[in-house]
Amino acid sequence: MFTGIIEGAGTLKKIQPNGEGKRLAIQTGMDLEGTKIGDSIAVNGACLTVVSLSNSVFEVDMAPETVSRTTFKSLLPGARLNLERALRLSDRLDGHLVSGHIDATGSVVSKTVKSNAVIVTIGIPETLGDEIIEKGSVAIDGISLTINRCSHKDFDVSVIPHTAKITTIGTARVGDSVNIETDMIGKYVNRFLKQKVTDTTAGTGNHSGSITRELLAKKGFL
């Protein structure tokens, strides 16, 4: 489990195909003291397991499923990466609960300077539209950000100078692909609502006790 608060940056030193999977060698100036083989590190938002560790370089394996859902299928050596080690239960949760399981990739549609922030518009597959809500949380390349505006095809986030400086979102260009993980709790609520609608349509649901979007909004969940 992660928070989406990036600890440090890394550089993709080497990428080695392994069938449909890949092995990545990542170099970082981040303090890896206490990190050991078997630990999880979020790399551009993807939860990966350390399989080799030597000084400032660590290696991780990516399964075919992870490769297919992330930007790593096209990244090249030299790419800058966002890194976050796994959350400890004693830590403050400064971002939001991030699993490190990427839902899909999106793309940078536009970047607009507004006062001291940069408004970044991210295009997404329409399949993610139901899991994106205004003022909700989203992880972009592992960065926890708040959604300012959203539709079924895109959403806006506001990036402050500190975030732009220490993460890849600051140097991302229009057209660049990014890893997207929607809010974990939102996904469960969305799935539950869809199942209730299916049950009701099929005549198996309890109409009087159905949970609707209106009810969730009334109770403060949306």
From TrEMBL:
Catalytic activity field: 2 6,7-dimethyl-8-(1-D-ribityl)lumazine + H(+) = 5-amino-6-(D-ribitylamino)uracil + riboflavin
Domain of life: Bacteria
Protein role: Catalyzes the dismutation of two molecules of 6,7-dimethyl-8-ribityllumazine, resulting in the formation of riboflavin and 5-amino-6-(D-ribitylamino)uracil.
Protein name: Riboflavin synthase
Subunit structure: Homotrimer.
Record's keyword annotation contains Transferase: yes
GO biological process, one term: riboflavin biosynthetic process
UniProt EC number: 2.5.1.9
UniProt pathway annotation: Cofactor biosynthesis; riboflavin biosynthesis; riboflavin from 2-hydroxy-3-oxobutyl phosphate and 5-amino-6-(D-ribitylamino)uracil: step 2/2
Transmembrane segment boundaries: none
Keyword Repeat: yes
Keywords recorded for this protein, A-Z: Repeat, Riboflavin biosynthesis, Transferase
Lumazine-binding repeat coordinates: 1-96, 97-193
Record InterPro entries: ATP_synth_asu-like_sf, Lumazine-bd, Lumazine-bd_dom, Riboflavin_synthase-like_b-brl
Gene Ontology molecular function: riboflavin synthase activity
Domain Lumazine-binding: 1-96, 97-193
